[in-house]
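Input record, target 12 of the design panel.
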């Protein structure tokens, strides 16, 4: 490819302005190469970190697989869960009865007119 160049005399301030505009708009090849090298280094670093994290996950999964609870412990947990559910149901029933009691008391006071000024 043949390059044709023409030279022209330009004032120094115009030449600086044009070169400054080009420098601000375009990146040099050296900077571009350095950016590519930096990006490649980042990708390699992330690859190593992902590999380390996968190894850690595998190690933790193996550790969890080994740690199975004893049957007696499982029975105690099941009993505790059952008792908690029964207690919650009983408390709900008690609170419903209390609401009914207060509603009845309010109705009784309303009929007698007690407490009205």
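The sequence produced for target 12 reads:
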């Amino acid at each position: 490819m043949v390059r044709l160049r023409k030279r022209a005399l330009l004032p120094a301030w115009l030449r600086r302005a044009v070169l400054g505009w080009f420098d601000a708009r375009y990146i040099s090849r050296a900077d571009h190469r350095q950016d590519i090298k930096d990006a490649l280094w980042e990708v390699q670093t992330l690859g190593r970190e992902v590999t380390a994290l996968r190894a850690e996950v595998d190690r933790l999964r193996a550790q969890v697989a080994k740690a199975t609870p004893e049957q007696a412990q499982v029975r105690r947990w099941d009993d505790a869960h059952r008792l908690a559910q029964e207690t919650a149901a009983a408390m709900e029933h008690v609170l419903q009865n209390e609401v009914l009691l207060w509603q009845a008391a309010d109705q009784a006071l309303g009929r007698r007119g007690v407490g009205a000024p």
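DSSP finds three helices and no strands in the chain.
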